[in-house]
Amino acid sequence: GESRFASVVLMLQGRRMPTLYFTTGHGEPGLDRELADLVRQLRDNYLEVKTCPNLTREPVPEDCAALLIIGPKQPFRADEVARIADYLEKRKGALYLGVSPGGKTGMGDLLSRYGIVLDDDIIIDETRLGKTASILLTPDSWHAVTKPLRGVQIAFDRARSIEVLPLPPGPGGVAAPGAEAILTTGRNAYGETDRDRVVKEGISEFEASRDVKREGGLAVAVAYEARAPRLPYGPPPPEEKGPRTRLIVVGSATHMLPGAMWAAPYGNVAFFLEALKWLAQTEDP
């Protein structure tokens, strides 16, 4: 009732509620089952929620403010990835991708265009109490998504790491801005590539030859926004108006969902909502 009232008010003001489309058909959790409570919260925050049509036959809908891919277990087909790429690049669309360890996307080449690589690992944090696959992060990035959440803890259980690579130089040898990490672990965390051993035996030993460790910690969430390149020491590019291609990639598909015995932490849901509002570009006039 309240969301319908808000929709009427927005339409009277000449605006519409942003519409989010969730993909299905690749093992994603169902909107009317696992994601039912989450969908209710999205609608309470004046975001419309729909199921995306079959991307093997139809393009991403014209009214899609952001495409959400949550927890795929089977990879997307080449024709589906092509339609997602058209939506992002030709229509300046927005994508939220949440993939837990072991999840498949079939989107490696597409993500690499934005300097994003999903590591095939599970993050282990070394604390004073021992090693754990449950990590607590406190955002310290000034990105628009995490700036309102500075000091708020966000919990991840069995997340994967994400590598951020610089984009290759374009015309004139100038590289366009690439993705940036917006949630990062502490320096003691590493990515265990023997995921089965962690899941089945609860054992992990860091091996430099196979496991992932990066200076400054491991990225758990990254953001990308298409922006004009800037020449070194040159004036800033002119302010761009209108929609821009945006992506949020998170190494977990379940961090914003309630666990077996408790509700999702406030910080987790708040981060998810801030990410979707940024993707839907609700801050733009």
Radius of gyration: 19 Å
Side-by-side strand order of the widest sheet: 2-1-3-4-14-13-11
Q: Total strand count, please?
A: 14
Structural class: alpha/beta
Helicity range = 10-25%
Low-pLDDT segments: 1-14
pLDDT averaged over residues: 88
Strand content: 15-25%
Written as H for each helix and E for each strand, in order along the chain, the element string is HEHEEHEHEEEEEEEEHEEH
Q: N-to-C terminal Cα separation, in Å?
A: 26 Å
Layout: helices, strands, pairs:
Blueprint: H1 2-12, E1 19-22, H2 36-44, E2 48-51, E3 64-70, H3 78-89, E4 94-98, H4 108-112, E5 116-118, E6 122-127, E7 130-132, E8 134-137, E9 154-157, E10 162-164, E11 180-184, E12 190-192, H5 195-201, E13 219-225, E14 246-250, H6 266-279
Parallel strand pairs: 1-2, 1-3, 3-4, 4-14
Antiparallel strand pairs: 5-10, 6-7, 6-12, 8-9, 11-13, 13-14
In words, what does this structure look like?
The chain is globular. The protein is built from 6 helices and 14 strands. Strands 2-1-3-4-14-13-11 form a 7-stranded mixed β-sheet, covered by helices on one side. A 3-stranded antiparallel β-sheet has the order 7-6-12, with no helix packed on it. The chain has a two-stranded antiparallel sheet with strand order 5-10. 38% of the residues are buried. The chain is 20% helix and 22% strand. By secondary structure, the chain is an alpha/beta fold.
